[in-house]
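User: I've been trying to design a sequence by hand for this structure and keep getting stuck. Would you show me what you'd pick, starting by listing the structure so we're on the same page?

Assistant: Good idea, let's start from the same input. This is the structure you sent:
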């Protein structure tokens, strides 16, 4: 199950998200930004604090596309590309990408200037977007942009699920009620293979089998959810035969 969120942007500055378990972020006429004409890559907050690396890195290919769109806007030098997490869909976050006036930013927002483009990550999205990349899709025929985010939302966030029985029973209930509904939107699922003491063995199927990102999905999302909901579980092992993945839904 790859992690890409499809965020199509049009003239309207907001972008949606394709629940693909990658972050495929298609940007349209609304994704241009840039404020500075500087060409370096630096990361600062709105209060000019300098970080070691950008929260969101823009690849050269994505930068070229975004700058092309930005330069078609009125007064492009006053604009930044602002990215914010708007929620989650299954195992991935959903995003909004928009051009905004640099003068309207919150002072706590994270700003990095990359190749003449001012890239802003909303203050409340920084921690969950750290290490992300804005890129172009791997499939050359696919348009738009992609956000590849190594972080995963907690499927239990905001939910109160009462689990009963032994570890195996609890894991099955958790998979059925909280985890698999999200994976199903990507054509995948997780299944319990067995339990040995406090170690849980899972396998991933459907669109998750053979998918390059399914291990990350298991590690970042499912493992966290299981350990949080069932504290007696100390280890989760992925026993999926990814080599047998015939036709994964996402690559």
């Amino acid at each position: 199950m790859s992690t890409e969120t499809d965020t199509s942007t049009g003239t309207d500055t907001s972008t949606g998200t394709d629940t693909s378990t990658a972050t495929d972020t298609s940007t349209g006429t609304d994704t241009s930004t840039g404020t500075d004409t500087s060409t370096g890559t630096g990361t600062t907050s709105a209060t000019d604090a300098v970080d070691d690396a950008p929260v969101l890195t823009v690849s050269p290919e994505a930068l070229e596309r975004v700058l092309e769109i930005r330069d078609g806007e009125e007064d492009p030098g006053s604009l930044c590309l602002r990215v914010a997490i708007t929620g989650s869909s299954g195992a991935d976050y959903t995003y909004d990408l928009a051009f905004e006036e640099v003068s309207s930013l919150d002072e706590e927002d994270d700003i990095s200037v990359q190749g003449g483009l001012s890239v802003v990550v909303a203050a409340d999205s920084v921690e969950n977007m750290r290490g992300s990349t804005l890129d172009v899709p791997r499939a050359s025929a696919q348009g738009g942009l992609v956000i590849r985010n190594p972080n995963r939302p907690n499927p239990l966030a905001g939910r109160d699920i009462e689990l009963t029985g032994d570890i195996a029973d609890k894991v099955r209930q958790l998979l059925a009620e909280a985890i698999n509904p999200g994976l199903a939107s990507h054509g995948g699922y997780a299944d319990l293979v067995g339990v040995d003491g406090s170690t849980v063995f899972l396998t991933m199927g459907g669109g998750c089998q053979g998918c390059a990102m399914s291990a990350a999905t298991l590690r970042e999302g499912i493992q966290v959810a299981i350990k949080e909901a069932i504290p007696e579980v100390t280890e989760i092992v992925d026993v999926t035969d990814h080599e047998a993945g015939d036709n994964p839904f996402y690559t």
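That's my pick for every position. To get oriented when you compare it with your attempt: The two ends are 7 Å apart (CA to CA). Helices lie at 60-70, 126-129, 167-184, 214-229.
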